[in-house]
Known about the structure:
Blueprint: H1 11-22, H2 27-34, H3 38-46, E1 53-55, H4 62-70, E2 80-82, H5 91-100, E3 110-112, H6 121-128, E4 136-138, H7 147-156, E5 162-164, H8 173-182, E6 188-190, H9 199-208, E7 214-216, H10 225-228, E8 239-241, H11 250-256, E9 264-266, H12 275-284, E10 290-292, H13 301-311, E11 317-319, H14 331-337, H15 350-362
Helix pairs in contact: 4-5, 5-6, 6-7, 7-8, 8-9, 11-12, 12-13
Amino acid sequence: xxxxxxxxxxxxxxxxxxxxxxxxxxxxxxxxxxxxxxxxxxxxxxxxxxxxxxxxxxxxxxxxxxxxxxxxxxxxxxxxxxxxxxxxxxxxxxxxxxxxxxxxxxxxxxxxxxxxxxxxxxxxxxxxxxxxxxxxxxxxxxxxxxxxxxxxxxxxxxxxxxxxxxxxxxxxxxxxxxxxxxxxxxxxxxxxxxxxxxxxxxxxxxxxxxxxxxxxxxxxxxxxxxxxxxxxxxxxxxxxxxxxxxxxxxxxxxxxxxxxxxxxxxxxxxxxxxxxxxxxxxxxxxxxxxxxxxxxxxxxxxxxxxxxxxxxxxxxxxxxxxxxxxxxxxxxxxxxxxxxxxxxxxxxxxxxxxxxxxxxxxxxx
Length: 365
């Protein structure tokens, strides 16, 4: 090689670079890369983990694309499918899947149908009948799925640990009873805006799903302390969203404060809460990282002082906007009490709101 010449890349180097770069590409770009050369094609197919994820989020003709992809050998071991906001997907696409490529879904562990509003109980039954190993199922913002769909989900998929039913307004306590009986290993449950649910159904969940780490009860204003007090039994609970829990009292919050591993708690618009409840929270939950007291007029500076004594080294997100009883709530005042704060407003700060939504959907911090 002449002086100054760049060394030629060998096949192993190219394959290594492809392995790194390809993990950061969209499905469309990945498929385009397959067409570059026969060597690219072989090297990419050799990366089996690339084909364990099928992401068709927001794509047009997602149903057709899904069926076509699962007909290919490289997707025979797919583990995660994302169809979030693929609004043209319908029940019939899943019926076709069941009839044509059922075996391709046998190892599927995660299915995201968020925003797929055309899916009904029929579609849920068809697709879950192909996925006996499904562990995570999300069907946010669907008003067509009923208790029958949940019954079919449970009959077909026995290993569920992560279930998002946010916005499924036509499920009732009957669904919660079935979930409680069959999914006692459940770790993540999102029941946001499931408006037909009552204390009776939630109590079944709290009684039998003792491994829950994340529970989202956002905008369920009809629930009362009768159910909230039972949250105390969730020893592993880390994330809890009670935004709009207008019937939650200090007594109920004092029971919730027994969840000592809690790191994220949303009490936005929990209007009955006062210093009494927050003081109990400060004593019982020293690991809090995320707390919203937005709009609660019954808390004062005493609440912040108590929280500072127990959580000053952990709290990174705190929203006390609208808490007119707290007089020292400027950014500077809050930083004196909680030096690690990074987010002060959840409702007016785009980044904080995006972060909060991420926690809601994933139950993680």
